[in-house]
Amino acid sequence: MTLLSSSLSPSEATRFRSAIAYLQAGQSASALRIARDLIAQAPRAADAWQLLGMCLADTRMPGEAERAFERALALAPGNATVLRNYATSFARLGKGLRADTLYESAVPVLRKALALAPDLASTWVDLGVALRMSGRIDEALTAYRRAESLLDPDSAGSLAVTDAITGVLADSGRTDEALVHAQQLVARHPRMTFAHETLSRLLREHGAEQTPDEDPFGSFLAAASAQPDNHELQLGLARMLLSAERADEALHVLDRLRGALDAADPLLDWFTADALDMLHMPDRAARLYAAADRSGLGKMPAFLNAYARHAFRTGTFDLAEALAGRAIGVEPHNQEAWAHRGTAWRLAGDAREDWLCDYDRLVAYVEVPPPDGYPDASIFLDALTEALARLHGASRAPISQSVRGGTQTAGQLFGRDNEVIQATERATRAAVETWLAALPKDLHHPFLGRRMSSVRWAGSWSVRLKASGRHSNHIHPQGWASSAFHVSVPSGVRDANSPARDGWLQFGAPLESLGLDLSPRRMIRPAPGYLALFPSYMWHGTVPFDAPESRLTIAFDMQPNEKAD
């Protein structure tokens, strides 16, 4: 990096270059120490101030970084090098925050970068992602449209942005536009796997009203049949079929793909084993899981969790516990692996199950007072029910979700420009923080050891269950803590004397497909205006109910907000 002027002495210039080398080597702390020393020695050197700004941005201190860059510009007004480093430092910082799912923190940083350099297409994409994941749908669409205008229309990046725009249109309830958008992308680029995946998901959730007799995977199946050489497309189709529990079709695709390859492929072994497991062919599945485990997949938590599910189904509980332990060793906060470990401990009669789950202490069910502006709970919940009803436009539940006999809203719920949803977000956050304050800290516990005074959202949505609807037993892999806020509940579900406990929330009964005869450890009768809070690794689901009214909830996942402490 060339110095702006001779305002640094030769020895200071040498230290400046050393700091740049440290930054490039990822040793930002060492670079920051040099930068602070240079500021003390040469407080009127623009080079020293822009170096400090770069170091502070690299260490995720955007406020201090902005002040340092602005000081550099005051000393070197309009300097192109300072402006470029200012913009790229903030763009890189914003990308890192976005990648770490710190979306709300990423937004102002990315906006600052774009104010300095409006033509950074990749930064517009990052901003679109951060806004979409923060629930700011209209702003996200604007950002993606700007990125699309800056990219080569036929580039891979542009196609990915076009696909993201389809998703944002669906999030905003513009389903017809989203479907047309997805169909056009598939027609223009029939070899693009993600385009077929998006179209199939949309048709699965929304196609029943428009084309009730059409297979939502029909276009994907036809494309795979017409492109036998497109291995990525074949694999994507197999994954989607498995997610939709169409294992026989997935196995056909995978066998065809395996036959086309000259050598064994561990990924194909894994997916084929999953299909065989679903089709109740455990011996063949076991051989393929073991073969895949000997490959590099044996260090991947997602594979280890899949293998553990097979181990539970075949009664090899020691293997399931060992696989869970390996997954935790690679990824200590993996929620599914902790769920598997707790289940294995329960099957073994190990007291550590109670230490991990402690259903009486770690599951809370608390009343959420009506937010300011709503005189009582009924007025608040009626307004919220009306707002949520407008967002439930799908006819079927998403693929790979726990909803059975109901629908789930698209995109992020919290962050939307809606008064009652914003009020709900504030009210539930207050309830969460009260709950957190009452929990003990246990540094050795996978849940309590990460407790902070506040949280950040890792996902939020609403579910509406119809008669006979339920949540299958599941966990929340993206969370640390999870929730269920009951907005409306059928009258029969509210009956405390119901022996069947229809519609009740249950904890501790594992995923049904594991084939384990384990009853719930705790059950809760839902009531409107009440919020359930629990660790994300805890198995939970609902009992089916038979009533004409719907059961309406809001759910959200949380991660500890380390900045708050």
Automatic annotation (TrEMBL):
Name used for this protein in its record: Tetratricopeptide repeat protein
Top-level taxon of origin: Bacteria
InterPro entries hit by this protein: CellSynth/LPSAsmb/PSIAsmb (IPR051012), CHP02466 (IPR012668), TPR-like_helical_dom_sf (IPR011990), TPR_2 (IPR013105), TPR_rpt (IPR019734)
Record key words, sorted: Repeat, TPR repeat
SMART domains, per the entry: TPR
Keyword Repeat: yes
TPR repeats: 46-79, 121-154
Annotated PANTHER family: TETRATRICOPEPTIDE TPR_2 REPEAT PROTEIN, TPR REPEAT-CONTAINING PROTEIN PA4667
Pfam families the UniProt entry points to: 2OG-FeII_Oxy_5, TPR_12, TPR_2
